[in-house]
């Protein structure tokens, strides 16, 4: 909007007229949104300020939901890495080679790769709360069974199936925050939701080191299952359904049962409708992954980011045990550097992202697009190769633990800043946030499964210096260019496949 010429008087009547025009435009936009919801779901909110709309819930309720969901995700993300410091002991007790034990460690990520397809589909049919609760119970069951009898088959199957249940945390946390907070607050909402869980991959090995040295590694699984059970009970009480389509479908059914007739589970039609909806909703993330190049770009950069991160988690304890001759407990404390990097990246990064977004949005003539997230991501992607090289060559030359941990913290901060930026971009672009998130995370979790398997061979042959340099070059070649590509050609890439 251009400024008025100075010679034209700006009296109170003119200002009042302008304010009335602005209010009328805002009211028209709000009315159009409400009508659009009615057409899509058979009901709409009573007004833009309807207290039943999750956007209008009190901050206390929103924060309570964020904390509960975060605590649930904390336990499941700790499961990702908790075996790292106890791998040698687990291999000995279960009777597996180190390489096969490494597969037991990383197969959890394979569950995280494929679980989101079903979780996302069910959440878009039945809502967030029901699916979150059921998935937690599934995780508790299989995580508790993993160590029973020191059985290799049960350990492998249990880790995979527990990962499928744990995928609800990583799949639904961001969509729940998108249900509750507007786009302008997306950075702060993600920072709030990730404050606790992003510490999980760093705290898991610390817990593993303490358990393997002072009690028994079996308790790693049972302690986490007990904690998750407590969180699930709290979630059943505190969590409220936040998915707008589910809430409006319920409202439409209450107003007119014929709009969404509810079939009994005892009837054949119930299962026909269920599988029809499941097929449609499971197909959606696969379709997004195959037909939307923007998803493929995001999946590549996030996949490399996460794959290298999990590789580091799986080898960090052994670095300190083998090269620095530290005990399991002392070696696991170095994961605090990863926790520090995670906290800085997630918290400071989230607020920085909102600040940059507001500055770009407030420019004259600005039209808000997902590309407003890119200026935040560009410096973030550069931290990853810098941290990798710093950490790798410091460890190779056995420099003081402080220097090695600083490099690890820089790398980790970059990883989580990139992840947050990509996630915000995704939520800005896609209405079906859970499906888009599942599609993007599939590649990341497959790489998170694969990278730790070849980690021992990588460092045995190249050492930490050249091994991390190779990873840094891989990221520089494939990951770093993508934010620049999205900045210049993002709108064109987003348009491809949109009509499919």
TrEMBL record:
It is a multi-pass membrane protein. The keyword DNA-binding does not apply. GO terms for cellular component: membrane. Residues 65-494 form the Major facilitator superfamily (MFS) profile domain. The chain crosses the membrane at residues 63-87, 99-123, 130-150, 156-178, 190-211, 217-239, 289-312, 332-353, 374-393, 399-427, 439-459, 465-489. It is found in: Membrane. One of its GO terms (molecular function) is transmembrane transporter activity. Pfam families: MFS_1. It comes from the Eukaryota. PROSITE patterns: MFS (PS50850), SUGAR_TRANSPORT_1 (PS00216). Keywords: Membrane, Transmembrane, Transmembrane helix. GO terms for biological process: export across plasma membrane; xenobiotic transport. PANTHER family: MAJOR FACILITATOR SUPERFAMILY, MAJOR FACILITATOR SUPERFAMILY (MFS) PROFILE DOMAIN-CONTAINING PROTEIN-RELATED. This is Major facilitator superfamily domain-containing protein.
